[in-house]
Every structure is written in structure tokens, then in C-alpha cells.
Predict the 3D structure of the following.
Amino acid sequence: MSEPLVRHFRQILIWPLQLMPLAHGQMGRQWELMQQAVKKSGSMWEARSTEFDCPPDEFQERHYREFVTFLPYVQRFLYGEGITEAADAASWGRSPMHVFRRTDIRTVRMTYKDGAQADFRVAHIDLYFFFDIDVAILAFEIMADDQPLRRVQDTMFRLGRAFPAQWDEEEHATNCPTRVEWLGADGAVLCESDYEDRKAFLAHVGEFRSTRMAAHWDYLLHPLVPHHSDEEGAIRYRQLEYHRMPLMAYLSFDDPFALREEDFYRLGMVTKPGDGDALPYSPRVFEEFERNCCYDRFWVPERQHPATSTRMMCNGHAFVLVGMHGNAFFSDPRTGALGQFRHQHFLLTMVAHFHKASLLLLRDRLAVAMSQLNIRNDISVRFFKREIRQCLEGFLRFNQRYWFREVSNQVLTDQLFQMLRRHLDTESLYTDVRESVQGMNQYLENDDLRRQADTVVRLTVVTILGMIGTTVTGFLGMNLFDYAGQPPVVKLGIFLLALLPVFVLTMLTVVKSRQLSEFLDGVADQRLRWPAKLLLLGRVFQRTRR
């Protein structure tokens, strides 16, 4: 049996990254630094224009269909609002997303373990920033025609590796391509991978306790630089999830019904190609895969009809679309599944991964703030309070601006989004982060109330004891000592002599306010006898031990 041929193949890598906070602590403003870098010479990124930047009479139907797929609050997130409805067009009329694109990389050349090479055309390379959230998402789309299925499986399995997880006995990076090269328009090599530099990856972890990005990905993201490195750069990032990048894949076959269960499983779960001699998985594995990861609304192999030849698979890490080449329902780049894959499906997949990345970011910031808390250090306590309040503010903005459980009323789009949410488990993650934020905020409120109560106790003690002197001096009046006729210098001296003991007595009362409060509580307690009350008075003058 001959190996199936993938007539058209597309793969979109969706790589969420955590951006480090800026010096002033404001979240989600790194895109402004990116704009400054774009204006300077040497940056390969350019601000990408949107579909709405054209004259209104030139707006295309494809963009219209994409727009109306989503609910209004999702539309405002993805596209912004019309300027005529916005009070301030500079801030409210724009989308919270800021997108940059680079076009210098035209081809990806991959060298595989068997020494073979394959070139993939680059469709687009976009970098998404989000207002008020320190998250960036890289979208990297490649495509090719007439590729063997095993080669496509190997590409899906190996390309999106930020760094190698391990090396074999010959110090070759396992599960990574032998080499990845970025080629320019003239075919020149702009950068290539360094997966085989085992010592460099090990030394980086030993120095920074953080993994080192492969050279070609580091080159691609510049001017963003890894946070745990010696590189200089204003926009710093670090890995947020697993080193395998989430992906989307589109595969068209002349006869998708000829694919075996094993082929679908390897595509849907993004595993390496099998040897083809025997099924490595039990039938129960395939049943579980079909039940949890397959969306078979348009897949009925028993009918052997083009209208029932489209299968969608989603496991959270990957969204894979398989169908029949030449079938307009599947292959049409405007109205078919291919157009939806590159636009509607891409957007809902990116939104789901953005939700997860944002929640992981907030949870990480909470964990870092808690790990740095030292309740015996006032500076540490103040830093902790400021950080928690910033996290609370960021979570509230994320909750109101970006968090939604439904993106569309269209059945297909909504059900795919629910599959993504279920596999990514964003609902549980959202609940955990919300409870953590609320718990820490409650702790801060309780601490503030405790401090206020302690201050009230001190002021109450000082007021009660000061009332004695006030009552005595008020009863005696000014007739006890007549200093009205004394010179001003004498009056000033008498005032200072009276001020000093009063000041010392007030400060001593403040210092001993807690013990004095216990003594006053004891005096008011009718169940205590006077010896016990005097014992409480004696404790006032005892030295407090740490």
C-alpha cells in the first residue's frame, strides 16, 4: 500500500510568551516599546495594518464573514469599535491587540533525522501584544504541497520546539529536527538552529536556572530578548508553558477515507510517524481519542461522499483539520474550511491559548509575590501589598475585558471553542486564580483592619489617660499658678518645662498602650479581684521580650 500524499499542508504555531513587567510596573505596555523599535533602523518587525484600515467601500466579504462569526464582546476584543461610537478614537476605537509582522523570512528549510530536507513557504509571521496583559503570542504559519504523510507528521512533531528536552548517546537532540534554517527572499540563510549545542544549553540552565531558547527562535523574536540572559533589551520574555508550541494543522488528501485509525491518532495527538508494521496502540486508546478529541460533524466514512470527508481533531495542544483535496467545501480559501481554518479557527484557538497564558501569568505573579514575602521586614510587606494589588487590578481588567465563555452562536465555532476550553482546562485555572486573588486580597484587608484596630486601641488608651490630666487642669483652672505677669522668656521656659514631661508621658503611654489596654480591660472586668487587677498593672512596667 502506497503512502498517502498530503496535497496541501499548512501548520500554524501559536507560541504564548510571558513578558516581564516594565520598570514603572504598568502591565501590557510593551507594544509601545515595540513601536519605538520599529521606527528605529534594524528592526524587521512592522506594525501590521488591519482589515478595517481600508476605505469602507473596499471592505471584503471574507472579512465580513469572519467578523460576524463572533459575538459583539468578542468583536470588540478582536477588532475594536468604530471611531464614530468612541469618545476617544486613540484609546477606545482600537483593538486591545497590537500586531506586528515580519516578512524577511520567506522559507523554512528543515533537515530531518534521515538526512532529507524539505522547504516550506512562510505564509506569515505575526507577533501579538495585548493591552494591560504581559503576554505576547507568536503566530508562525508555513505551507507546502504534495508532501508524504510521514514527512508531514515528522514536521508537525518536531518543528515547534523552543529548545531540546534531551540528547541521545551521540549528543543529537531527540525529538528536534537535525537543523532548521530561516531563508530570505534570495535564498540566503538568515539563521539556523543550534539544537546540537548541548554544552550551551546545559551551561545556561546552570547559570540562570532557566532554559535557553534555540538560536533560530531567539533570532526570530528579536528585539525581544530572553529575561534570563545577558542580552540587553527593553522587552524581555520568558517561557510560559511547555517547550512544545501549540499548533494548528491543515491537511488535504485525495482520499481521506484511506487513512487508518493510527494515522488519525498520530495527526490528532501530534506524535512521530510509526513504522507501519503493527498498531502500537490498543483499540481502547483509539476509542478514547475519538470520544474526546474528534469532532465528526462532517465525517461519515461509511458514506464515502465528499460532503462527509472533513474531520476535525482537538486535544488542547493541537487543532488538526483533515479533508478532501479539490472539494470546495474543504479547499476553497475564501468560503471553504481552509479559509475558516486560517481566520475564524485561528482566532478562536488564539483566544483560548491567550486565556490560559494570561491566567498562568497571573498565577505566576502571585506565587512570586508570596515567595518573596517576609512578614518581619516592613519593606517586603509593602512590596507584597503593592504586588498583590497590581495582580488584583490586572485580574479585574482581564476578567472584564478578555474573559468570556462563549465566542459565537454558530454551532461549529462554539463547539470547537468549548473543546479547546475543556482540553486546556481554563475554567478550573480561572477558578484557582480567582480564589487565590480573592484570598490574598482578603488577607490584605484583614491586615489593614488589624492595623486600624491596633491604632484605635492606642489612641483610646492615650485619650483615657490624657483625660485625667485634662480634667485636673480644667478643674484647677489657671488660678493655681499666676504667671501672667512674668516676662516672656520666663513664660517660654515654664512652657518648655511643662512640655517635656507631658511629651515623654504621652510617648510612654503609646509604647505601653497594649499593656495599658489590657489593664483597663481588667479594671472593667468585674469578675477579677483587685489583686489580679494590680498584677495587670505591674505587667505594664515589665520589659517586653522579643
In short: DSSP finds 17 helices and 14 strands in the chain. The CA atoms of residues 43 and 222 lie 8 Å apart. The first helix runs from residue 30 to 39.
